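[step 3/7] fold_predict: job queued, chain A
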Amino acid sequence: MTAFFALATSLLWGLADFGGGLLTRRMPALTVVVVSQSVAAAVLGVIVVATGGWSEAGPRLWFAFAAGLVGPVAMLSFYKALALGPMGVISPLASLGVAVPISVGLVLGERPALLQVAGIAVAVTGVVLAGGPRLGGAAVQRRAIGLTLVAALGFGAVFALIAEASTTVTGLFLALFVQRVTNVAAGGAALYASARRGGPVLPEAGFPWGSLPALGFVGLADVAANGTYCVAAQHGPVTVAAVLASLYPVVTALAARGFLSERLRAVQATGAGLALVGTLLLATG
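[step 4/7] structure written:
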């Protein structure tokens, strides 16, 4: 069950990152974050009311609140880094955030079996290579590297926080709703501050209403990924769930291949193969 839900997380996050990356080419990154998360918050609000999720309110929601504050910072940093630097550098660096939940799991006393340790090493190596790291070419701006590391730390923190936010299904819906409302509030405040400083809020042609379904998909895929990760972390070791969930760069690369006809370089194909081997080791360990 842990492997299934963690791999579902990778699929959802990979598609959400692919869609978010495309949308930021047409509108400011903050706007993408706020609008996509607003759609997700609205849908989750309906689900919470329908399932009676309010009855699950408790101290654990502070973890969801914290994840909601960290999430927009991580997403905005990641999208801005993608705008400044090559995805072949940004994507694998951002995936290093998996070190945060792995460290938390080890601190809490988790001790993966030897086969799982091997799987973690192979899978993480595969994820980094699948991003297509560029070992040559033009230098990457220091700002892009800094933003990517901030995003990696933020993504890893969200992994760790959201896993502690609930223990039941209805509680999970409420926790995700709180996280999304906090996302929107924090992102909206940042967008307002940016507008006050003269920063762009909308494209010159106005809000692209035709992109609303895509924005909704990005927000809902992201929140669904948080949910499946929670389930994975609750039914197995966090160290295993986090690594399997971090395979999303492989999905992003394959989506670019399928939808944009981008060819996978040899290093990316090798990375995808190693990620698959690592996944099998983790699932059977």
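[step 5/7] annotate
The two ends are 13 Å apart (CA to CA).
The chain is about 75% helix and 0% strand.
exit 0
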